[in-house]
Write a structure and sequence with these properties.
The chain is α/β, with parallel strands linked by helices. The protein contains 11 helices and 14 strands. 38% of the residues lie in helices and 26% in strands. Helix 7 packs across helix 11.
Length: 385
């Protein structure tokens, strides 16, 4: 490649995984295993960028830089010179690609060349380490600050399209964001949690709207690996998952690669009340994922599908997509009321979910990423109740 790596037309680990993962492989190889003085990403053919994929790319850039710096400090400058001394991009001509890159992408996150564009709002990449706080109080304080910043950012984006939250909905949003952030932190075996937001206001066909994006991700054990671990604190839910796996095996629901036990357990883990923490704590937890999905789709102010709004989860080789085609439904189990999302017409997790919404891939994501993209329409100061 001579150090020049083409960015695919659609850079998305969700929509175009083959080309996107191949590009990331080439990038890592160029950064760590070649003698190129410069590594350049060529955006000549790039039309769209998924925010989650862009942040994954930026993390690779940042971590490779830390690695090379550490190598230089340990073994001397000559060793550090074996690696590229510069990274960059060229042919960034597409306006929307340009806006995202210089707002919350590599130029802003890695090179510090962030630009504020009209009609865009950014919540810059936040990297938090749970080891940065010496005790639980400090860690919780960091979480509260991040929650407030994200909630304020959501409010600012909504205001751009004449929406505002009621006090009750604002409280709900803060609780949901807070629990999702702490989940991401707890489940990260590397100790890091990342979050970023990007909003673009638009005017097309005499319609005023905005596209809101938010990504929260961590690295380490996947959802499946967390429950599969023999040391998982909540063996009650593990037993339920194993029982469900047996039912699926008997019904021949598992299909190699397309839908395996990993995807089933990942889906089960998203249901209300299910958590990997110990039974002493689980009554206070286990609602984060499903409430996160509910709250962010409530921001739309309607339940209509629009071919844009979707929330996507990547964990290991499992992908789960929520776009409103399947609703979160109430269900009574052993006399208790729960909210579930099963992605099937039976509204029952004992039946196989729709393969277009819950499926396995060949591509492993080393942790869990939640990626939100929502179209917000101008509602004339409509309050979201």
């Amino acid at each position: 490649t001579s150090g020049v790596i083409p960015v695919p037309k659609h850079f998305s680990i969700f929509d175009n995984p083959d080309e996107s993962y191949q590009m990331l492989r080439k990038l890592i190889f160029a950064l760590l295993y070649t003698n190129y003085k410069h590594v350049i990403l060529d955006y000549k053919n790039c039309d769209t960028i998924d925010l989650c994929s862009q942040i994954l790319l930026d993390i690779i850039f940042k971590e490779s830089h830390k690695f090379v710096t550490k190598i230089g400090n340990i073994y001397g400058r000559k060793t550090a010179n074996l690696f590229p001394e510069g990274i960059g991009g060229k042919n960034i001509d597409n306006e929307r690609v340009q806006k995202m890159l210089f707002s919350v992408g590599s130029p802003a996150n890695v090179a510090g060349r962030d630009i504020t564009f009209p009609n865009t709002k950014k919540c810059k990449l936040c990297v938090h380490s749970k080891t940065s706080g010496r005790n639980a109080e400090v860690i919780m304080a960091y979480k509260d600050i991040a929650t407030t910043e994200l909630a304020d950012y959501v409010i600012e984006c909504l205001r751009s399209v004449n929406k505002e939250l009621t006090p009750e909905r604002l409280d709900d949003l803060c609780i949901v964001i807070g629990e999702t952030l702490i989940n991401a932190e707890e489940h990260s075996t590397t100790g890091y949690r990342y979050s970023v937001g990007y909003f673009e206001e638009m005017e097309e066909d005499n319609k005023h709207f905005g596209i809101f994006r938010l990504v929260i991700l961590n690295f380490g054990h996947t959802i499946y690996e967390k429950f599969k671990d023999k040391d998982c604190p909540n063996q009650e839910f593990v037993a339920q998952m194993k029982s469900l796996s047996e039912q699926y095996t008997k019904s021949n629901f598992f299909v190699k690669r397309e839908f395996e036990e990993e995807s089933l357990w990942t889906l089960y883990a998203l249901q209300q009340g299910v958590t990997s923490v110990s039974t002493d704590e689980y009554t206070q937890r286990g609602n984060g994922s499903i409430n996160f999905i509910k709250s962010f789709f409530n921001l739309k102010g309607d339940c209509e599908m629009d071919n844009v709004s979707r929330l996507r989860i990547a964990s290991g080789r499992t992908r789960i997509i929520f776009d409103g085609a399947y609703k979160i439904q109430p269900r009574v189990i052993n006399g208790e009321s729960f909210e579930v999302m099963t992605f099937n017409k039976e509204n029952d997790i004992r039946y196989k979910p729709d393969k277009n919404y819950v499926y396995g891939t060949d591509y492993y994501f080393p942790g869990t990423a939640i990626s939100v993209k929502i179209m917000l329409n101008d509602d004339d100061i409509k309050q979201i109740n």
